[in-house]
Amino acid sequence: xxEPMTILVVDDAEPVxxxxxHALRLRGFNAIEAGGGPAALRAIFAAxxxxxxxxxxxxxxxGAELIQLLRAAPDLRVRELxxxxxxxxxxxxxxxxxxxAQTFLSKPFGGTQLDAALRVTIGADRGALRAASAA
Length: 135
Description:
Blueprint (H helix, E strand, L loop, with lengths): L5 E5 L3 H13 L3 E5 L2 H10 L4 E5 L7 H9 L4 H4 L3 E5 L4 H8 L3 E4 L4 H12 L3 H9 L1
Parallel strand pairs: 1-2, 1-3, 3-4, 4-5
Helix pairs in contact: 3-5
């Protein structure tokens, strides 16, 4: 039996984290969360997840700053961590993509948009991911 793929959700807004974690778990992922950049860095360096979904606007550091720190990490698993940028503010998409996010998810989002971002980032669809995590 394979372990489910771990996805880290980084957002200072607890309701957004809760929605994303629930949606990801329904899709067969092991979803974990961090409320900001420093907590995310600790989690990522302790055990790099397969993917991170990172909000742009957080109080201690922006998502783009967090992504830049990841891209400069000496650990290749951290440096090449796939990232979905997340924001509801105009202009955030370009900043997150410039920092190194593979794709962008705009708030508010639905299941279809989340699935599309996951496909772009990890190259699989929801059904294949469920099957892989159930095997």
